[in-house]
Amino acid sequence: MKENPLSFQLKLKPEDFLPATKEEKESQVIMRESVSFWKDGVRRLAKNKVAMVSLFIIVLVMIFSFIVPSFYPYSYEEQIKGANNLKPMEYSAEEQAKIDAGEDVFPHILGTDKIGRDYAIRVMMGSRISLLVGLVATCIILVIGSAYGSIAAFFGGWVDLIMMRIVDIIYTIPDILLIVLLSFSLKSPLQQLVEVPGFGWLGVLGENLVSIFVVFALLYWVGMARMVRSQVLMLKESEYVTAARALGVSNGKIIRKHLLTNCIGTLIVTTTLQIPSSIFTESFLSFLGLGVAKPLPSLGSLASDAINGINTNPHLLFIPALLISLIILSFNLLGDGLRDAFDPKLKN
Amino acid sequence: MLKYIVKRLLLAIVTIWAVATITFFLMNLVPGGPFLSEKAISPQATAALEAKYGLDKPLLQRYMTYMSDALQGDFGDSLKQRGRTVMDIIAMKFPVSARLGGISVLVALIMGIPMGCIAALKRGKFLDSFISVVATCGIAVPSFVVCTLLMYFFGVKLRWFPTVGLTSWKHYIMPVMALSFYPTAYIMRLMRSSMLDVLGQDYMRTAKAKGLSGFVSLFKHALRNAILPVITYVGPMLAYTVTGSFVVEKIFTIPGLGGEFIKAINGRDYTLIMGTTIFLATLIIVMNVLVDIVYKLVDPRIKLK
What we know:
A: mainly alpha; B: mainly alpha; MetI-like fold; flat
């Protein structure tokens, strides 16, 4: 049969239908499972020594501040009689007598403060408060910031313009001035609110702590909102968003299921770097006497209280001061490590 | 350009107005009044004083009166420090804070820029790692920690510098060190990364290829471009040193505006709170606008919107 040179017919021969050989089959086998975004990120993170050490320190501090106090023999508000201003590992006269009588007395590892409270447990409780403030405040920022930013970017146009002008205004407001003012003015309305049934839990947290959260919720979400907005602006042009729209998915679901889940890398990094700055601000406020209510300690207020006794008991100042620096440093380094691991823009 | 400046200025005015309004209503939420703490005053006298300063009128009316007065440049008299206007107090206290803040900003720039450059030029060497570690730690240490450590070692233990007040040049050393600590660390990091970025650019290779000396290419090409991000940081840095001085002023007992602000809130000195807030907010916002405009002027690559 004469072949037509323009024919598209495949010129197959009988050999082409033979079963594949072993070598041919092997070349098709997938050697490794394909690496998912998460696995890849976690693997990069695990290789980063600085980040892993920071993570270890953070976990250690968390164990000491959340778990150890529950079975520690002293409590943070208990004033031990005759044990004022003890140096680390010292015992009061009473406790020394007990030891001489053969009883076991748990040592004051970091000594006691001037009204006889065990300092080790106070530092642990203090770091618990500082960590709690950092984590809760960051959660508030994350929720408000990502919702605000994604809504502004998704709807665009006038909505975006007005919403971002508001962000611009909040961004330029000198924050410390307003924080100081807010913490003062929120105190008494909150105290009244505690008496209203159903709001008693506010009293457990303490009015100052709640007002710190309110301050964060009002002022600090703008950075997060800007970050999320720029991501969503980019993502909303993707085909899968158009596809989801064509299938009739509601706007809210597109934002939640498609847009926010796709900028999760940025969200994780920004959140981790927000935690130290929240802790920083809390310690600053506590230091000025606007932080958590007494007798609850925070690292900032512990340092502030110890300043007057700096000549006689400098360790009371150094321990919380260095601990807070260590916590902030670890979170910063972990955040940097996470950014290297999860930010796709930095991949070569 | 003009459109951009006008837009920024309008936004600045709205922001200052927002700050003033928020502050006005917030401070009136704080219970108590300026004259309640003085026990010697009879209720009649309190009422008379309140009438004199217009505190007996409804809140909204006071707000309108205050705003229209403030627009004409009249910030009223201090309620607690009798016989002195708010402007007098600011004029007396602000130079102290400004001098301290100004010196700190200068120190931060003088220390931070060269160190960042050195780190970038010696990338991967010991000096780079050393500077990077110092900068990373510097960012993590809150200002009150720096203050108290400085005070303990140099003030209490070694007795090199006085710890209270601000009368001789010796008094400036510790507060300036404390205030410039964070900005220096930040500028070092910023300068290092932007310098590294610039050094990898094509025009640096061109400069080398056409035979420019290392000195000229470094100062004329690299530094001029690398310093731009630092300029944008000057605005926030100024805000930081002005407000960050709250803590420094408290620890070193310096009679500056920050301490006055805290005292005014504690004493419910309404006019002084408003005056200092508006003053500091205006200062910070205007500085930010200026820095942004300067930034756009020096860098022709940035398009004006």
